[in-house]
Amino acid sequence: MNKPLSAHDSLQDAIASVSESLNVRMGQLLSAPESNSNTVISMSSKVEATADVNHVRGVELILDAMRYSTLSGGKRLRPFLTVCSAGLFGVAWESAVEAASAIEFIHTYSLIHDDLPAMDNDDLRRGKPTCHKAFGEAAAILAGDGLLTYAFQVLASSRVHADPAVRCELISNLAVASGCWGMVGGQMMDLEAENKQLSLEEIIRLQRLKTGELFAVSCEAGAILGKAPGMMRKLLRAYAHDMGLAFQITDDLLDVEGTRTETGKSVRKDKIAGKATLVSVMGVERAREHAKILTKQAISHLDVFDKKADNLRALAEFVISRKV
Ligand code: GRG
User: Fewer CB within 10 A of the end CB, N or C, for the chain?
Assistant: First the structure.
């Protein structure tokens, strides 16, 4: 039995506790279906009987690449948002972790595809060779595709929630946040923006889609699971958007000021790619100040919640002080 998150001593302990449960569950979900009944794949006896060795090898290979990228660290911020918001509405830990696993699968897919030569062309992610460096480009594309589709398979399972309407809403909201009206659209805007002058408003809009929407749905997911009133869902989304933008500014600052060893990923990428960022447009000091203002604003959206929201408040402070 996990103790409620609010009873943890510090934000770091709370994040570690969520990460631990998440890693266990994602590890189970990504294990071969034959060896683990915890996966949500149920192979019919007909399929099992006809599955030849090559087919199974292919599945194993892709699961290897999916595991490599998913179980390789990461801050687990999006799952943490889901578990924290679920805690506000008395949602069972296991339900929250199941939904959080699906969201982290989407996030991991986006990182794998973002690192590909056709996109950011990166060789380092979370301190390790990127998926395509370790497994080859085709396997990395498929690992991303595998994670993207598996996320929705996981959300469709009754382990997430007994009520199909709740599962349907999670699936629909996550699809919007990660698709062309969210992350995918934002990524395209980002690619289009190389070597172009963007206004501050345009950059904020781009970031809202590229990273903000996934943060927002991560936070809203706990409220959906808890069948929370619309007003509370709105406040949690507003919190996540402000926190997400502060997170993004910090990411841009780390790209300018951090080192490859410290951050575990390549730095100075934005400048090399000729990308306008909030930092390049505002300047380092103004951007840092703006991140602080956004953090305060994010926390103010949580005023309606009691002490149970303290981890969300602490997270907003943490994202602007992080070095990774
Ligand atoms: C390929 C469809 C598609 C989308 C990619 C999110 C994204 C869109 C690309 C990531 C590129 C990037 C470095 C964005 C800046 C902010 C960001 C999302 C960083 C990575 O998220 P973290 O710091 O990663 O939460 P960890 O490794 O901690 O999980």
Answer: N
Q: Could you report the per-residue pLDDT of 41-78, keeping only the tens digit for each?
A: 555 544 454 455 445 778 889 999 999 999 988 999 99
Query: Does residue 211 have its Cβ closer than 6 Å to ligand 1?
Result: yes
Residue 129 DSSP one-character state: E
| Nearest atom of ligand 1 to the alpha carbon of 108 | 29
User: Which residue has the CA at smallest separation from atom 3 of ligand 1?
Assistant: 110
Helix (H, G, I), strand (E, B) or coil at 259: coil
Q: Is 251 touching ligand 1 by the criterion CB < 6 Å? A: yes
CA-closest residue to ligand 1 atom 23: 75
- Can you read off the two tokens belonging to residue 193? 């923006």
Listed residue (224, 254, 196) closest to 100, CA to CA: 224
Question: pLDDT tens digits, residue range 163-214?
Answer: 999 999 999 999 999 999 999 999 999 998 887 888 999 999 999 999 999 9
